[in-house]
């Protein structure tokens, strides 16, 4: 797949959640700053975006917002703009809608601050570059990065979508072919949220709307996907990272 000659330059990182399943660690710090192999989770995400050519990232903050802002201020790339949710959490959809207003209208990548991957092949297009190139706003509302369950660490095993031969996604039901897990990365055009509610709502509303219109598509992640939902999962993630760093 060719790399888009004009890569997506803007992104939104959803980072405002409370991280309740990671307590007691998140009683003293926000989940995106929890270190995995001596590196805060959100820095894995921001490094992936930077490597894909993203220049400006909106990041929403709520839980330990001051700590988040102080950490993000240390980065020079990508440029960070803060979407402040101190007053009220906006959920995934509301947070995205609010953050998009801080970015120029156009194509945008969206990532979760606590979901990332390792094991991309050097010299090949990255997963985010592939996703940006795959996204076609004429035929798609959103393009999702997905992963096969066997290429995950820390995941519950829940299957989210079925991916057909054309790359179209539908909600997974038992027995469906080509099941995949949503990997927490989206390519979309910001105008999709022009009519978004002003209050909190879940991003799944837009996933289901796109499915109903046959406009939700996806590609499969190359490498290995990590999710850290509990304190016990930290060690599993670190072992996986070390294994890939050693060339496994």
UniProtKB/TrEMBL annotation:
InterPro entries: GlmU-like, NTP_transferase_dom, Nucleotide-diphossugar_trans. Keywords: Nucleotidyltransferase, Transferase. It comes from the Bacteria. It is an enzyme of class 2 (transferase). GO terms for molecular function: nucleotidyltransferase activity. Its EC number is 2.7.7.-. Residues 11-117 form the Nucleotidyl transferase domain. SUPFAM superfamilies: Nucleotide-diphospho-sugar transferases. This is MurNAc alpha-1-phosphate uridylyltransferase. It comes from Rhizobium herbae.
């Amino acid at each position: 797949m060719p790399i888009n000659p004009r890569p997506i330059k803007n992104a939104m990182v959803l980072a405002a959640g409370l991280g309740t399943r990671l307590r007691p660690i998140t009683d003293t710090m926000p989940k995106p700053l929890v270190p995995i192999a001596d590196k805060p989770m959100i820095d894995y995400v921001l490094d992936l975006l930077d490597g894909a050519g993203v220049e400006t990232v909106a990041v929403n903050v709520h839980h330990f917002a001051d700590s988040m802002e102080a950490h993000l201020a240390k980065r020079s790339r990508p440029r960070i703009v803060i979407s402040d949710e101190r007053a009220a959490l906006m959920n995934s959809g509301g947070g995205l809608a609010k953050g998009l207003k801080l970015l120029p209208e156009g194509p945008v990548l969206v990532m979760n601050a606590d979901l990332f991957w390792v094991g991309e092949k050097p010299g090949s297009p990255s997963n985010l570059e592939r996703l940006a190139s795959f996204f076609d706003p004429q035929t798609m509302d959103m393009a999702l990065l997905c992963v096969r369950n066997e290429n995950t660490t820390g995941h519950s095993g829940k299957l989210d979508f079925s991916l057909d031969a054309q790359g179209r996604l539908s909600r997974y039901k038992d027995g469906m072919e080509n099941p995949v897990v949503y990997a927490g990365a989206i390519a979309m055009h910001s105008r999709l949220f022009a009519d978004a509610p002003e209050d909190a709502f879940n991003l799944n509303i837009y996933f289901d709307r796109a499915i109903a219109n046959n406009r939700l598509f996806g590609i499969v992640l190359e490498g290995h996907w990590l999710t850290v939902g509990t304190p016990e999962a930290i060690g599993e993630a670190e072992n996986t990272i070390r294994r890939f760093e050693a060339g496994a």
